[in-house]
Amino acid sequence: MPISSDEIRGHTETIILARLMEGDSYGYEIGKAVRVLSGGLYELKEATLYSAFRRMETDWLIESYWGESEGGARRRYYRITEKGRQAYRSGLESWRETKTIIDRLLDRGGEHDAEKA
Amino acid sequence: MRKKLERHVKKEFSRYKPTAKRNLLRAEIMQNVSERYDEELSAGKSETEAFEAAKASLGDIDELTSSCGVEKKQFPSTAQWLCPLITLGIIVAVAMRHFDMVRAWCTAGVLLLVALFSLIVFPRTSGKWKIVAVAVYALICAALVILPFILKTGGRAPEDRLKTLDFTGDMEEIVSIKLITAAKPSDDPDDFEYTVNKDFPKEQWKELLAAVKRLEYSDSEKTWQELSSVSAGERMIRIFISGSDGSDGIYLIRESGPCSISSDNTGRAVLTRTCICDPALWKEFIGECSGD
Fold first, then answer.
1. What integer is the mean pLDDT of A53-75?
2. Which range of residues forms the domain containing residue B200?
3. Is residue B116 part of a domain?
4. Which DSSP string corresponds to B125-145?
5. Burial classification of residue A82, based on how many CB atoms lie within 10 Å of its CB (0-12 exposed, 13-18 middle, 19 or more buried)
6. Which end of chain B has fewer CB atoms < 10 Å from its terminal CB, N or C?
């Protein structure tokens, strides 16, 4: 079942930083990686992606530079900064805490559902 | 389909102000969307399916407005369209009332430019600069409305602003005289009084006033004829004379003479009625004007 953007909205930047932790990349490649890793269940739209890029550049979490693509055309690449690495670790920790809380909150309902069934 | 995709992306971005930022962002996203299209084609999708997938990957471009410094174009609201047009309509009506057609259309053209200027400037300003722009626009419009009343002149035909003195005497040649001269000089060379400068060559004086004839009555010829000469330093006034034979013309007569010249409340020079109603006096008056 596809995941709505509302559920992941608060973690978009952490997701992008996670990709950049693996190495410099560009917009399309990051979007494709997210799509593939989520098994097609989640897609980062271009507008969301570039909106996040600009915010993270403003906050010095990432920086961009012009490089060449395979076809020889210019392409903008992004690399993570040290501050970005810290933000990634912080975002990852935040997600784990959120996941734990939500699991606890929702599992109780699941138990009752199973009992009734 | 690739061209269609490009057009779609361009269209999505056309709602935003054409800046370098916008163009760079558009180019980058266009690259990504194009690669997505190629990926879908490689995966075996049809061109239409690949196009739809690539198009869907674009998302809502409005998300970019705040974070990416891309600003939406602002179109004038209805009020902003109406204000200049209504003002333009009023001012054209006023201008046509006071100016001749050529000047009225020139005025309308200038005002149209002012209205277009306001439509472009107003949406781009905000805060105190919008107030400044509105104030400048209002001042220009107010000045243009008031201008005809201040000038009280224009290119209108002299007859419309004249004080008509009807002559009811039995002189055959003259049926009416219209004073078209005021005491104060004007920018309009066809009107008002002239002072012949001492250094002003008579030949040039004649050329400039080619439509103006200097009048003198010839006893022998029993006709009105042109004055043969004028003296330097004289103040001349113009009058428009209609002849009983249907002829008419604009003539110069000397201010000094048997008739009295006075100013009315508006400062305009006025020929007294009694002077010109009496043919004999008129003839005498004209006779004094002729020749030195």
1. 86
2. 158-289
3. yes
4. --THHHHHHHHHHHHHHHHHH
5. exposed
6. C
Please say if the pLDDT value at position A101 is more than 80.
Answer: yes
Cross-chain CB nearest to A28 (options B25, B35, B61):
B35
Two tokens, residue B210: 């080619």
Subunit contact A73:B39, Cβ cutoff 8 A: no
Contact between B120 and B130 under an 8 Å Cβ cutoff? The reply is no
Can you give the residue ranges of every domain in chain A?
A: 5-116
Q: Calculate how close chain B gets to A113, using CA atoms only, in Å.
A: 37
Nearest chain A Cα distance for residue B65, angstroms? 9
Question: Among A76, A94, A78, which Cα is nearest to A86's?
Answer: A94
Distance CA B272, CA B260 (A): 6
Asked whether residue B73 is domain-assigned, the answer is no
Put simply, the answer to whether A45 touches B32 (Cβ < 8 Å) is no
Q: Which tens digit of pLDDT belongs to each residue from B10-51?
A: 888 887 877 888 888 888 899 899 999 999 999 999 999 999
* CATH 3.40.50.2300 correct for A5-116: no
What is the average pLDDT across B113-140? Answer: 67
Evaluate whether residue B273 is within a structural domain.
Answer: yes
Which of B39, B57, B62 lies closest to A46 in CB terms?
A: B57
User: By CA distance, what is B60's nearest residue in A?
Assistant: A47
Last residue of a domain, one of B151, B177, B202: B151
H helices of chain B, where?
A: 2-13, 20-42, 47-56, 64-67, 78-98, 101-124, 128-151, 202-208, 273-277, 279-289
Instruction: Give A34's pLDDT tier (boundaries 50, 70, 90).
Output: very high
Sort out which chain A residues have CB atoms less than 8 A from B60's CB and list them. 45, 47
Kindly indicate whether the ipTM for this predicted assembly is greater than 0.90, answering yes or no. no
How far does B47 lie from chain A, in Å, by closest CA? 19
Highest mean pLDDT among A51-55, B63-67, B157-161, B232-236: A51-55
What pTM did the predictor assign?
Answer: 0.48
Structure confidence by residue, pLDDT tens digits, B196-252: 333 334 444 344 343 344 444 455 665 544 544 444 444 445 555 554 455 555 555
Q: Say yes or no for a CB contact (<8 Å) between B63 and A75.
A: no
**Chain centroid to CA B210:** 27
Q: How many domains does chain B have?
A: 3
Rounded to a whole number of angstroms, the distance from the CA of A43 to the nearest CA of chain B is: 8
In chain A, whose CA is at the least distance from the CA of B65?
A51
Q: Look at residues B39, B67, B95 and tell me which one is the last residue of a structural domain.
A: B67
Q: Are residues B122 and B198 in the same domain?
A: no
**Do the chains contact at A45 and B25, CB–CB below 8 Å?**
no
Residue A47: which of B36, B39, B64 has the nearest Cβ?
B64
